[in-house]
Amino acid sequence: MKQLKPLTITGGRLALADGISHGAVRLIDGRIVGLGEISAQDGDEVLDARGQLIAPGLVDFGVFAVDKPAFHFGGITRAALMPDQSPPLDVPSRVRFVAQSGKPDFWVHPLAGATKGLGGRELAEIGLMRDAGARGVATGRQWIGDSGAMLRLLQYAAMLDLVVVCHAEDAGLAGHAAATAGEMATRLGLPSAPAEAEALAVARDIALAQMAGARVHFRQVTTRGALDLIRQAKAQGCPVTAGVTPAHFMLSDLATMDFRTFARLSPPLRPESDREAVREAISDGTIDVISSGHDPRGPEGKRLPFADAEPGMAGAETLLAMVLTLVRDEVIELPRAFDLVAAAPARLLGVEAGALIEGYEADIALIDPDKPWVIDSRKMEASAGNTPFDGQPTQGRVTRLWKGGVAV
Amino acid sequence: MTSTEKSSFAGRYPAGGAAFPHRDLLGIGQLERHEILYLLDEAEQWVELNRQATKHSDALGGLTIINAFFENSTRTLLSFEIAGKRLGADVVNMHAAQSSVKKGETLIDTAITLNAMRADAIVIRHGSSGAVALIAGKVDCPVLNAGDGSHEHPTQGLLDALALRHALRARGESGDDFTGMTVTICGDILHSRVARSNVLCLTALGANVRVCAPPALMPAGIERMGVTPFHNFDEALAGSDAVMMLRLQTERMDGQFIPSPREYRHLYGLTRSRLAKAAPDALVMHPGPMNRGVEIDSDVADMAGRSIITQQVEMGVAIRMAALDVLTRRARKVPDWSDAVNTGRWA
């Protein structure tokens, strides 16, 4: 569906990269054509934003399901899809299909599976998948344990100028862990792995990436040790980026206290000191991207004993509200919030979206940042309601959404 | 036999149902000190009964108790079965190996099925931590945890406390609580639900608890549970008033944790010469099953006046009778036990 008529949204607060300013946005043929103190022209459809935020549609980097109702609820207009599908995204035909699967009102950017069957051994046809629409390469839910295979992957991806999205958990240490080693896992008697499993994996992958000259993105960095390594690597000019999901800056492993499987995540929730380290890393720019990690899991996967349950949370609907809590807590300012959830992930994917810039795709979210609501796992748009934030009151909702200038 | 207050214990805990306001017995971690004491005190009458020629009460007559064991067990299952039968209940054992669990039925569906059969209490053992609490949330009757993964085994913690109490009383001490006493738990602490329930129970009753294991079998942050960790068994033993040995749970080990059983015995086996490093009259305990010649030598396990391993087994039946009696009082409409209860979910 194409945008049929020019649209001008007036009377809003524009979430621009360098600050929030009052003004309007004008959209024609699916593109942003005007920003700031502009007025509607004859024949335009006109909408009064009534002081709400006019923001870019969110770009969700690294989701596990294409779950449109949830993404639209959360103001997300594009998502980078992890290759961990059934069957996995490890052949060009699957990538090509998935890349078209959300259109027109939602764009899916596939991340190509780095190895065949995501087995961590044989390289998949990354070049063919790139030309079929893949916007990056991902190791999937697992770490590639074979350092030789990882180096070859990074060299190959560097040649193709594709970012490699890594899962940072040393497999030997992580084993079948369902929790982070520490008081909580000990009290609950859960199989656990030391938090250092993450730093170990990050250290190796940074070293290999420097050898290969590759761009790497750690999808979730959740521990102080690993964040320190990324901070150092960035200071040395290494092209490394880091992401996190709201669970790891909102919750600690205390949330697992009643064996609640909605808090069974991968990587697992960490002790409070790591949660604080994540917030510091968001504040100082060590963390570049916040994504939902959207991974809806029904009762078949979650109504099980904790360690037997599948990891993952439905996060698309709560992403924006959780990031806005960082603004209210003065961890970041509002423009940075939209860099974390829209502009930075769009840059990683190399797409002209995720920011209010003339000529960019007209993916626009109208946001009431203060609107109060209560997260209720029984009333979610997602295909499953597995949120660890169930019952939590929060603020900030998307009130209108446009994909390519067309109202969703 | 179900009098809720005894003169000798008056004032130790609230009256009536307030003495034990839980629907389920899921873990020692949920219990207050006075609730632990209440169950121990309640068990005394059953210790006495079990020593009579005729060991029978009709307290639970007409009630159905299901022992649902999703993990193999001999002694705990037998102990619960005897406890239920001595209280006059109809006891049914369900072995997971023979059940529809093998056919792919989910744990929740199994729980709902048991519930529909209108059990009056369900005793559950399961290999995953938290599984028993999960089932408890789906059924309408009291649930007793007979061991969930590496999490808790509350009746074991209670029976060990009761066995200690009786051993102390036999020596003329009060045994009412364990203040000033040092208890060392040695073995596979990482995988042991017995260790966790004992740590919680013994520390609640005032004991100084030491845990001893090689680093790979010592869970992280265990000191936050109020215990002192040791890797050197000889150091842990020094001055200990009781030593509890645990077996290596090789079935839960993912990878190699120790080089060999004989090396383990060399460093962590309770031998007669090692026991001499503990307090002169130190008690020896083991929850069973024992691997004689690995974590404990036969002459120590059978040492008269010191080893209370068989007493632990004896107290197990009494504790399970007390737990079944107390938890079914609301359903049996015992006077003063009609109040609302904590349904067992952690708050």
CATH superfamily of the largest domain in chain B: Aspartate/ornithine carbamoyltransferase
Using only C-alpha atoms, the radius of gyration of chain B works out to 20 Å
**CATH fold call of the largest domain in chain B:** Rossmann fold
Described by its quaternary structure, the protein is heterodimer
Q: Give the CATH class of chain A.
A: Alpha Beta
How many domains of chain B?
2
CATH class of the largest domain in chain B: Alpha Beta
Whole-number tally of structural domains of chain A: 1
Uncertain segments of chain A = none
| Global morphology of chain A | globular
Structural class of chain B: alpha/beta
- Major protein interface: A-B, 26 and 28 residues
Mean pLDDT of chain A: 97
Determine the structural class of chain A based on helices, strands and strand pairing.
Answer: alpha/beta
Separation, N- and C-terminal Cα atoms of chain A: 11 Å
CATH topology of chain A: TIM Barrel
Main sheet of chain B? 5 strands, parallel
User: Uncertain regions of chain B: pLDDT < 50 for 5+ in a row?
Assistant: 1-7
What is the end-to-end distance of chain B?
Answer: 33 Å
InterPro entries (chain B): Asp/Orn_carbamoyltranf_P-bd, Asp/Orn_carbamoylTrfase, Asp/Orn_carbamoylTrfase_sf, Asp_carbamoyltransf, Asp_carbamoyltransf_Asp/Orn-bd
GO biological process, one term (chain B): amino acid metabolic process
Catalytic activity (chain B): carbamoyl phosphate + L-aspartate = N-carbamoyl-L-aspartate + phosphate + H(+)
Subunit structure (chain B): Heterododecamer (2C3:3R2) of six catalytic PyrB chains organized as two trimers (C3), and six regulatory PyrI chains organized as three dimers (R2).
